[in-house]
Design brief:
The structure is a homodimer of 207-residue chains. By secondary structure, chain A is α/β, with parallel strands linked by helices. The first copy, chain A, contains 7 helices and 9 strands. In chain A, the strands form 2 sheets. The first copy, chain A, has a 7-stranded mixed β-sheet with strand order 3-2-1-4-6-5-7, sandwiched between helices. The first copy, chain A, has a two-stranded antiparallel sheet with strand order 8-9. In chain A, helix 1 runs antiparallel to helix 7. Chain A is globular, with a radius of gyration of 17 Å. At the A-B interface, helix 3, helix 5 and helix 6 of A face helix 3, helix 5 and helix 6 of B.
Chain lengths: 207, 207
């Protein structure tokens, strides 16, 4: 199946700025994208990066500078289903986790992200359209139900764990073994173990 | 299988204090415990609450006021394996998710929690001991490997999503349909949808 991987080359992970500088965030975002592409490949499917601008990566890249929702719906309308979408900031994704999303037999399959997002999506119904704003997992569930489709939900921590905030980097160090985890180790980002949830310290000993 | 569910009756979720008062936190923690017990029952296993003090709940309760790690290791030493542990603050747990943990055939099965914790654990090897301090998922993995055992990891968002912080309540409202979700709705805790991850507003319109 064709798997769209949207990638915003212009705004690389600004919420990580307490820990990483702009060029570091760009490199780290590219490493996460590589991990997602590797996981899709390991699952035996074909990734197609949907980028806001030109990008040097080992996969076909379609450049479309529309906002995410419009860009994905454009592909859905042009190419039709089946089509999958997987976000690019999932450094814990594995072939096994991606298979659980892509190989699930249901007209609509959804993998929730932390905080109400939709990190993975399979569309096998021609009438379905996406909307990635706000609590999109709730909206996608409702959109499926409005078409009389029962969405299948994938219960995966590896697919839920998108990286947006400094604390998320701890999960990459704890559970990742791909390029993003390696990048963090090389950059000197380290686990900081306290009583509550584990956090990180940045390359400069910060944040 | 016997599933220990540790429950600290003395310190109910203090990190939720920006949103919930002390008596609310106690009631909400009890609702989460009920959800976990329901999920274990739905998976066809037997829950045994390991509480720091007397507790009124529809399951056998063993009172042991030792710290968590010592209390669980005491049961492991006395009763021996197989033994499972599932934390009490998993309001998204379902029978299906719990089955993925308990029915996995491996000497040690681990379900990671957000932030380095271990939310679920199955011990089928008599030499294994638990240690819930710090980044316990890493320590449990190493402890298994030190016994020459390859731990099986359960990739579940529902089991990873323990509730400690106000933002976690958003996940309960988005994905829960048990007693904890119902309690939040009744208390007037509501989703607050912004551009980033979804958050909540408290009963008083706060936090």
């Amino acid at each position: 199946m064709r798997v769209l991987v949207p990638f915003d080359a212009t705004d690389s992970k600004s919420r990580l700025s307490p820990v990483l500088a702009a060029d570091e965030r760009r490199d780290f975002a590219a490493a996460m994208l590589e991990d997602v592409l590797d996981a899709i490949d390991a699952a035996g499917h074909d990734a197609d990066v949907l980028a806001t601008g030109p990008l040097d990566v080992d996969a076909p890249v379609t450049v479309n500078d529309r906002p995410l929702t419009a860009a994905v719906n454009h592909v859905l309308a042009e190419a039709g289903p089946p089509l999958a979408v997987l976000v690019a900031d999932l450094p814990l994704a594995t072939g096994r986790a991606v298979s659980r999303l892509l190989d699930r037999a249901a007209p609509i399959v959804l993998a929730p992200g932390l905080g109400g997002g939709t990190n993975g999506l399979v569309v096998r119904d021609a009438a379905f359209r996406v909307d990635f704003h706000g609590a999109s997992i709730r909206d996608h569930r409702r959109a499926a139900e409005a078409l009389d489709l029962e969405p299948a939900m994938v219960d995966s921590f590896r697919l839920a764990m998108d990286v947006d905030e400094p604390g998320d980097l701890a999960e990459v160090l704890l559970h990742g073994d791909g390029q993003a985890a390696e990048w963090l180790l090389d950059a000197g980002v380290e686990l900081s173990v306290t009583d509550g949830r584990v956090d990180v310290t940045g390359p400069d000993g910060g944040p």
